[in-house]
C-alpha cells in the first residue's frame, strides 16, 4: 500500500468533558464489563462533516527486526511487501491478525462451541488501479482526529509502531502500538487484546500540550454476516439517534451506490423474493455496478437534512440501508445472525456515541457487502482531554458461543 488517509471532521470548538476509563485485566467476562461507568444523558452537536487529511507514505516494516525483538507470547510475523502482518494465536484456537504500519485489524477467528473457529470480522482485498498494490478495507480501523488551540491544523495518526508484546497463548495476548504527533505532545497507544472469548481494541491518549485536546472519530469495526437481512440488533430499544450519511475513510467499506433508491432491488428483502426475481436483481446489480470506482463515497454534506428519532424496536432487523449515530444507547448490545446461527456482543467504553451502519440486503449473500459496521465514536461531540490528562476508551467484541 502506498499511502494512508483518515477522516477529519469539520468541527466547531465546544466545551465538554469525558474521562471514562476502559480498564483491562488478563481475563474478563461479559459480566465484568457491566461494571463500567454507565451511560447517561448526552449533550451533542449536530454539525458533522467529513474531510480527508493529506496522505503520508508508509515506511517499510523490518520483519526480521520484529521477529527478533517481539516473537513469542503467541505472536508470529509475516512480511507482505512493505507491510507486515502480526498474528496472535491462543491455545484454544482463537486468532487475530493486524497489519503494520497501518494498525488495521484484519481478522478475528473465535473459538466456537463445536470446537471449530468462526471469522467474526469482515475484510475486503481488491486490486489497486496500478495493479501492483492491494486495497485492503474493513476489519477494525481507527479514524481519529485531534485538534487543540496550540495548532493551526488537526493531527491524525496514519502509521503505527509496534511497542510491546505481552501475554501467553494459554490465557491472553496483548500487542501495543504507538503513534505520536510531530511535536511528541500527543501520545496515542493502541492495545489489541486477544482473550479466549473476546477481542478488544483499546486506546490510551496522553495530552502533554498546554491547552485542551479535542478527539474526534473512534473505533470502527466491520462484523461479517451472512446477509444484513438475517441480522438483528438486540437491546437498542429506547436509544436516541440521528440518521447520517456514511463516513468516508480509507478502510471503511461502503457500496458505491449507497442511498440510490433507483438501483435494482432497493428496499426488497431476499427472503420475500422469488428465485427468479433474486437472479434478475443480482444480474442487474452486477451490470449497474460494473466500472464503478470502489473505496470511497461523496463527502458528507453538512446542510443535508437529518432525521432525529428514538429506537422503538428491541429486536431490530437490519434489512434496509441505514446509518445512525446513537447519542444515548447501552454500552453493551447484541448482534444476532440467524443465517449463521451465531451471535456477538459488542461493547464500548470512553466513547458516548454508537455508530451503526447497514449496507442493506440488496447485495449478494456472503459478498463484499455482507457486513454490519459498528463504531464507538465521538463524531457529534468531541472528547475533551485537559492539559496533562489522559483518556482511555475502546471497543470489544465478545464471543458468547463457547
From TrEMBL:
Q: Which GO terms describe its cellular component?
A: cytoplasm
**InterPro entries (UniProt xref):** Gal_mutarotase_sf_dom (IPR011013), GH-type_carb-bd (IPR014718)
User: What superkingdom does the record give?
Assistant: Eukaryota
Gene Ontology MF term list: carbohydrate binding; glucose-6-phosphate 1-epimerase activity
Coiled-coil regions in this chain?
A: none
Q: Which GO terms describe its biological process?
A: carbohydrate metabolic process
Segments of this protein annotated with the region Disordered: 292-315
| Composition bias, Acidic residues | 301-313
Q: What is this protein called?
A: NDH-dependent cyclic electron flow 5
The scientific name of the source species is: California macrophylla
- Which gene holds the coding sequence for this protein? NDF5
Amino acid at each position: 500500500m502506498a499511502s494512508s488517509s483518515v477522516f477529519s471532521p469539520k468541527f466547531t470548538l465546544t466545551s465538554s468533558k469525558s474521562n471514562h476509563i476502559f480498564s483491562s485485566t488478563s481475563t474478563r467476562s461479559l459480566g465484568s464489563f457491566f461494571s463500567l461507568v454507565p451511560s447517561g444523558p448526552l449533550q451533542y452537536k449536530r454539525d458533522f462533516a467529513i474531510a480527508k487529511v493529506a496522505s503520508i507514505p508508509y515506511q517499510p516494516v523490518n520483519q526480521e527486526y520484529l521477529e527478533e525483538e517481539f516473537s513469542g507470547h503467541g505472536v508470529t510475523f509475516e512480511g507482505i511487501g512493505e507491510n507486515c502482518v502480526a498474528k496472535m494465536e491462543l491455545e484454544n484456537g482463537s486468532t487475530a491478525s493486524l497489519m503494520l504500519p497501518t494498525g488495521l485489524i484484519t481478522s478475528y477467528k473465535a473459538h466456537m462451541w463445536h470446537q471449530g473457529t468462526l471469522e467474526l470480522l469482515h475484510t475486503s482485498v481488491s486490486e489497486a488501479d496500478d495493479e501492483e498494490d492491494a486495497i485492503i478495507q474493513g476489519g477494525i480501523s481507527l479514524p481519529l482526529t485531534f485538534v487543540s488551540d496550540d495548532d493551526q491544523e488537526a493531527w491524525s495518526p496514519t502509521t503505527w509502531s509496534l511497542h510491546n508484546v505481552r501475554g501467553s497463548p494459554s490465557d491472553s495476548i496483548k500487542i501495543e502500538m504507538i503513534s505520536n504527533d510531530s511535536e511528541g505532545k500527543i501520545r496515542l497507544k493502541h492495545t489489541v487484546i486477544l482473550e479466549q472469548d473476546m477481542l478488544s481494541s483499546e486506546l490510551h491518549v496522553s495530552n502533554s500540550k498546554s491547552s485542551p485536546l479535542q478527539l474526534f472519530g473512534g473505533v470502527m469495526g466491520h462484523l461479517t454476516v451472512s446477509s444484513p437481512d438475517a441480522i438483528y440488533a438486540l437491546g437498542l430499544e429506547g436509544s436516541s439517534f440521528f440518521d447520517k450519511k456514511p463516513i468516508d475513510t480509507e478502510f471503511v467499506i461502503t457500496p458505491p451506490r449507497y442511498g440510490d433508491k433507483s438501483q435494482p432491488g432497493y428496499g426488497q428483502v431476499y427472503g420475500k423474493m422469488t428465485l427468479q426475481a433474486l437472479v434478475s436483481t443480482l444480474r442487474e446489480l452486477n451490470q449497474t455496478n460494473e466500472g464503478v470506482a470502489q473505496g470511497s463515497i461523496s463527502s458528507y454534506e453538512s446542510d443535508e437534512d437529518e432525521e432525529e428519532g428514538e429506537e422503538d424496536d428491541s429486536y431490530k432487523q437490519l434489512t434496509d440501508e441505514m446509518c445512525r449515530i446513537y447519542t444515548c444507547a447501552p454500552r453493551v448490545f447484541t448482534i444476532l445472525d440467524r443465517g449463521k446461527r451465531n451471535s456477538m456482543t459488542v461493547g464500548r467504553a470512553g466513547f458516548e456515541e454508537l455508530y451503526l451502519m447497514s449496507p442493506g440486503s440488496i447485495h449478494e449473500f456472503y459478498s463484499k457487502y455482507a457486513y454490519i459496521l459498528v463504531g464507538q465514536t465521538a463524531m457529534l461531540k468531541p472528547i475533551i482531554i485537559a492539559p496533562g490528562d489522559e483518556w482511555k476508551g475502546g471497543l470489544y467484541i465478545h464471543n458468547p458461543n463457547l
